[in-house]
From TrEMBL:
InterPro entries: DUF938 (IPR010342), SAM-dependent_MTases_sf (IPR029063). This is UPF0585 protein C16orf13 homolog A. SUPFAM superfamilies: S-adenosyl-L-methionine-dependent methyltransferases. It comes from Cacopsylla melanoneura. Gene3D superfamilies: Vaccinia Virus protein VP39. Belongs to the UPF0585 family.
Length: 241
C-alpha cells in the first residue's frame, strides 16, 4: 500500500533543492515504514553501480561520502556491493533523514553510517552540522542529480568541499544531465532544462567543458572520465590532484 506524503521539505539554503523537487514530484512512501521511493533512483541504480565498480575499490578498506543522498535508495543498494567501503550518507533536507536511515536499517547494512546534515554551499569546515571532521578524510565523494538543480555557486561549494575532504588522488563521482561544449542534446534534455529554469532561473543543466571543468580546476579537481548513461544522463569522474 502506498500513501501520499503530506509534508514537504523546504531547504533553508539554495543548495540541494533537488530534495524539494523530489518531495513535490515523487511523493510516495510505504505505509508500513518511513522509506520514500523515487522511481528514477530505482531505474538508474544498476547502471550507476556498473560504473562505480570500475572506480571504487572492492578490496581495500576505504570510505565514501555521499552528498545529497535523497531517499537513501542509492546508498542502500550500493553498499552491499562494497563491503570494504564505509559509506557516509548526507542531506540538507532533514525530512529525508528518516527515509535514509530506514533504508539502511531495513537492509541490515553495517557499513553505512547514519545520515548527517550537510549544506554543501556552506564552508567545508561547517559541513556535518558543524561537527569537526578531519580534512582529507575520504577516498570518494558521490553526488547524484544535484548539479542541475542548484545555482552554479552551490556546485562550486561541492568542488570546494571535494578539495577539502578528499584524500590526495581521491575521486568525486557525479551523475546527472549535462551539456558539453555548448551543446545540449537530445530535445528531452532541452525541454527538461527549460522546465528547471522556469522554476528557478539560477538553476539549469551545466556545460561540462565551458562551466564545470574551469570551475573544478580552481579547486584542484580534474575531470578524468565521462560515461554516457541511460536516459541521456552522464557520469563524470573527477580526481583531486
Amino acid at each position: 500500500m502506498i500513501k501520499k506524503i503530506n509534508q514537504i521539505c523546504v531547504p533553508r539554503q539554495p543548495l540541494l533543492k533537488f530534495c524539494l523537487l523530489y518531495c513535490l514530484s515523487c511523493s510516495q512512501m510505504a505505509a508500513s515504514d518511513k522509506k520514500q521511493f523515487y522511481p528514477a533512483a530505482d531505474r538508474n541504480k544498476q547502471p550507476i553501480l556498473d560504473i562505480l565498480k570500475k572506480h571504487i575499490s572492492t578490496s581495500e578498506n576505504r570510505n565514501c561520502l555521499e552528498i545529497a543522498s535523497g531517499s537513501g535508495q542509492h546508498v542502500s543498494f550500493f553498499a552491499p556491493h562494497f563491503p570494504n567501503i564505509e559509506f557516509h550518507p548526507s542531506e540538507e533536507c532533514r525530512y529525508l533523514f528518516d527515509s535514509i536511515d530506514e533504508y539502511i536499517k531495513f537492509s541490515g547494512l553495517t557499513n553505512v553510517k547514519p545520515a548527517r546534515f550537510i549544506d554543501a554551499s556552506s564552508q567545508p569546515e561547517k559541513w556535518f552540522d558543524g561537527t569537526p571532521v578531519k580534512k582529507e578524510s575520504f577516498d570518494y565523494i558521490y553526488n547524484c542529480n544535484m548539479i542541475h538543480l542548484v545555482p552554479l555557486s552551490s556546485t562550486e561549494g561541492l568542488f570546494k568541499g571535494a578539495n577539502y575532504y578528499l584524500k590526495p588522488n581521491g575521486l568525486l563521482i557525479t551523475y546527472g544531465a549535462y551539456a558539453d561544449n555548448g551543446t545540449l542534446t537530445p530535445q528531452s534534455n532541452i525541454d527538461f532544462n527549460h522546465s528547471i529554469k522556469s522554476r528557478n532561473p539560477s538553476h539549469g543543466i551545466r556545460d561540462i567543458s565551458l562551466e564545470l571543468v574551469p570551475l573544478a580546476k580552481q579547486y584542484n579537481i580534474e575531470l578524468k572520465h565521462k560515461y554516457d548513461m541511460p536516459a541521456n544522463n552522464k557520469i563524470l569522474v573527477w580526481q583531486k590532484v
